[in-house]
From TrEMBL:
GO terms for molecular function: lipid binding. It comes from Cucurbita maxima (Pumpkin). Its main location: membrane. It is found in: Membrane. This is Patellin-6-like.
Amino acid sequence: MVVERKKKVSDETIMEDDMNFSINNDEELDHLEDDQFDLNFNNLKTVFLYFINRFRFHYIVEYSNIHKLCTCLLSLFELKKQNWALFDEQEKSDGEMSEKELDEMEKKLRKKKKKRALIEFRCKVEEAIIGNYLLGKPKPKEHHKEISLWGVPLLPSKGHEGTDVLLQKFLKAQRYKVSDAFDMLKNTLKWRKEYKADEILEEKLGGDLQNLVGFLEGKDREGHPLWFHANAALRDREMYQRTFGTDEKCEEFLRWMVQNMEKGIQRLRFEKGGVDSIVQITDLKNSPGPAMKEFRSVSKKALLLIQDHYPELVYKNIVINAPFWYYARHILRSKIISHKTKAKFIFAHQSKVSKTLLKFIAPEQLPVRYGGLKRDDDDEFSPADKTSELTVKGNFAGTIEFPAPETGVTIVWDVTVAGWDVVYKEEFLPEDEGSYRIQLQNQKKMGESLRNSFYINEPGKIVITIENPTFNSKKTVYYRSKVKPTVPMYILFNK
């Protein structure tokens, strides 16, 4: 249906090819204004006329889509009615509401505003896809009704659970400004088409950089995938030259970073209550300095790409082992990134790395190099083997005991401490008072995750003592153990 507006001095006419109707004065619309909350589907023509007059634009839409259009309008009117009810309630109780009640009222209003923005955004996206202009001016006979993003269809009327989740990410990134969110979505789809982002997972990128500079491994305490990016290997002059030697190499490195981002998104679940963002951890220990302009330029481009085309897909950006020059550069770079992006950054000095990471990541999911208990090709434990916790107050000592009532077995244990800086000791205490204590680990200052094992040839227990020499700082100890049957070596040799 093609709708054409013609303005006259004393009347206003809306012409249409299939149905001929007009408004000779504003009485009908005035009535609609006064009673707009009582609209229903028995008056579709009036609703549609109101829509055209209200928003003042030329609109092309199929007759079969009027019903969807009116559905969106009625939802908006219902939200507006609820908002007025909230304002009336506030006016009636003005001066009588407590601070807590005012906060609750403000939360309700914000929630209604977000819901209304989502409905408006849904309508706008639906219109753009049906009108075939979401990806720009279409070519003749070209259709884009099956547009999807990260495997989620964007057409709201399809009813996919992930559609609203994705649309809300664009809204949140633009402070629930529908027009800005719509422009961001269009730009993202256009960029993905030009950059061929949907095909990037099939490309062989990274080469020597895989598992050395960037890798996806583990989850945080809330289930967000972890994307580690360690730059120490790039300090090697030969490696740096192979990676950033030409403009083409720089572009390939950037494309590899985008590929890692896409791999992380494959692990997300765009559904209500699902994990729909990742945690990025950047390790700057022995990282190339500020003089390496190619590395600095690519890092800046990657940050802006994620900000502009991956809205709200990075839950946190934890930067560890950051040198002084990085803090200065981050302050300067803050001028070109959004406030929301800046708020996601968390910095951890070298002495606070394990404490910071263990705050967000369970030790069984965190690699050993960062103070966790996860080891490559581990035959003893898996991430499913959960840890226990022990808190040691300042200037106190705590003990961990692993009972060993049976003989002929081996006890294996892992221990790590958030923040290190403790004194650690291990020993075996036999049940028989006539037997000797066996010291397994003499007192030492703990600065890394530890694993040890001991074969039990008489009943007793393993006792681990952890002393906290600091006065006003608590230390959290994470540990786990397992018992496995073992055949002594001398029996094997005798056979």
